[in-house]
What does this fold into?
Amino acid sequence: MEDRYLRQFKKGSLEMILLSLMADGETYGYEIITRLNRHGGVMGVAREGTIYPILYRLEENGLVRCRVAPAPANGGSRKYYSLTPLGGNTLQELAAFWESYSRCVEEFLEPVRAKWKEAQP
It folds into this structure.
């Protein structure tokens, strides 16, 4: 399968996944990337160049807030991200849509899978 199809499909769900990671509580970029890479085998490798622009866009749209605080280890600073009320509502709406969407896709795939099973020896 062409990589561009997979990239486009993953890109469409990544914002919802980032919002869901922040639903657990305040987090920072590196932690988000680590969690994605630990649990998102199908998603591929999450990179800063992909994740941070999405975080900035979510903040611009009022879905997440950001605060800067001293980093515990190196004396620098760290940006912490958390959901706003609008972000929480948007996540609920996206999750509801995802459930409907995935059921719809499954309905289309069911007969195709049945044909594939029949064709196997």
Remarks:
- The first helix runs from residue 3 to 23.
- The chain has a mean pLDDT of 88.
- The beta strands are 27-28, 64-70, 77-83.
- Helices lie at 3-23, 29-39, 48-60, 85-119.
